[in-house]
Amino acid sequence: MVRSLWSGATGMLAQQTAVDTISNNIANVNTAGYKTSQNEFKSLLYQELQTKTTSANGETKPIDSQVGLGVRSSSITTIFRQGAFLESSSESSFAIGGKGLFGVKRADGKTAYTRNGDFHWAVTTTGLELTDSEGNAVLDTKGNPIKLDGKDYTTSRITISNEGELYYPDEKNNPASMGIKIGVWQFNNPAGLEKLDGSLYLASEASGAALNEATNNNLEKSRVVQGYLEGSNVQLADEMVNLIVAQRAYEANSRVITTTDTMMQQANQLKQ
Question: Distance between CA 5 and CA 74 in Å, rounded?
Fold first, then answer.
């Protein structure tokens, strides 16, 4: 009977984790580049109630007798489904169509990756530098920060192609290549990326090394769109349904505990 107490407790803990995951998805429904997370469960060990493989008459039993010992969260998987494109008034806002991610250089020197293309031109001592909203430098195809020497650029006149190449009008007002291309990377297993705040990710052993679209011809190239941001791929209706399911499952597991407690109380009262 005590087994049911522990099974109910593990169920409540697992459903609490599910509610935490769902609440984080709902909280980031309007976060640019956010990718929804999904909680996955697995059953715990099974206990053998009857180890003999034959019945009392010596006949072979078709099945054995086992009982499960509960559940736990096995993983929280990030779903890299394409989000909707949202129009932005900023000329330095970029959205990615495809599997790629932008690369940014963090203050600690590590390269992080993101689908949030809400970038800005920051003024430096030598000119301009393309950064994200946290001040991390956006990287080009060679892994270097995107910098423009000199301060005589009008950032609103900078345009990019679908391949991420930067252009600026020449003397005849025709777009001329600046020789700079925004870097885009892919991963063999993007769900294995390590999550950070600000919709950033770090490469890990599970995700594999970053694959540069500019140097890897085996990758399906992504499309970079200027003047748009990729919205989160959270489906609010699905999250609300999942929240109701998790709540009911939590209530059911709590009922298992109260029912087991009542049964144990009645068993203790038999001698009275």
Answer: 21
pTM greater than 0.70: yes
Pairing of strands 65-68, 46-50: antiparallel
Residues 106 and 184 in one domain: yes
179: region left, alpha or beta (phi > 0 left; psi from -120 to 50 alpha): left
Q: pLDDT digit string (tens) for 142-196?
A: 999 999 987 688 888 899 999 999 999 988 888 888 999 999 999 999 999 999 9
Residues 91 and 196 in one domain: yes
Question: Mind spelling out the 3-state secondary structure of the chain?
Answer: CHHHHHHHHHHHHHHHHHHHHHHHHHHCCCCCCCCCEEEEEEECCEEEEECCCECCCCCECCCCEEEECCEEEEEEEECCCCCCEEECCCCCEEEEECCCEEEEECCCCCEEEECCCECEEEECCCEEEEECCCCCEEEECCCCECEEECCCCCHHHCEECCCCEEEEECCCCCEEEEEEEECEEECCCHHHCEECCCCEEECCCCCCCCEECCCCCCCCCCEEEECEEECCCCCHHHHHHHHHHHHHHHHHHHHHHHHHHHHHHHHHCCCC
How many Cβ atoms from other residues are within 10 Å of residue 13's Cβ? 16
In terms of domains, do 70 and 54 share one?
A: yes
Q: Are residues 208 and 257 in the same domain?
A: no
Q: Are residues 42 and 90 in the same domain?
A: no
Domain match, 123 and 217 both: yes
Per-residue pLDDT tens over the stretch 121-149: 998 888 899 999 999 999 999 999 999 98
